[in-house]
Model the fold of this input.
Amino acid sequence: LGNGGGANVSSPVAVTGGHVFVSISAGDAHTCGLTGAGAAFCWGNNLRGELGDGNGTSTALPVAVLGGYVFTSITAGAGHTCALTNAGAAYCWGENFFGGLGNGSAVDASSPVAVSGGRTFAQVSAGGQHSCGIAAAAAYCWGENADGQNGDGTMVSSSVPTLVVGNLTFALP
Done:
C-alpha cells in the first residue's frame, strides 16, 4: 500500500512520503508511481529487483528508482517494471528470467537497464513476463513467449525486442 504498514485495509490510505504522483502502475506484488518531475518511486516486493532501488529488500514505503532518470511513463509487470524517458528511451528493471527487460540477457536487474536496439519508443507496457512497445509506428515485444504473446510468429522467448508480425500500423494520439 505504500503507507509503511503491513496490514490489509478496506478503505484507501495515503502513500507515505508526501509525493504527488501523476501516474501509478500496480504490478503483481509491487507498485510504482511517477511524479510530475519524472521521478520514479516503487514499493512492495523487491525479491527480483522490481523496485529499481539497487537492492533486494522489499519495503512498504516508496523508494526512489536509481539512475536519476526523468521518466514520462511507467508500467509495472508481474515481477518487472519499465519506463520511458522524454526522448523515448526505454528502461526496465526487475525479474528477467525470460528476457522481459529486453537488454539481451536473462539476468535480473535491481536498477534500470536500457532496452536493446536503440529504438525511440512512444509507448511501453510491461506484462506478466514480457514487455511490448511502439516505436516508429511498429510494435515490438520481448520476454516470455510460450503462448505466442510476443506476436513474432514463434513461441520462443526473446531477450531483445522483436517485431510483431503482420501488416500492423500503430498511431498514438
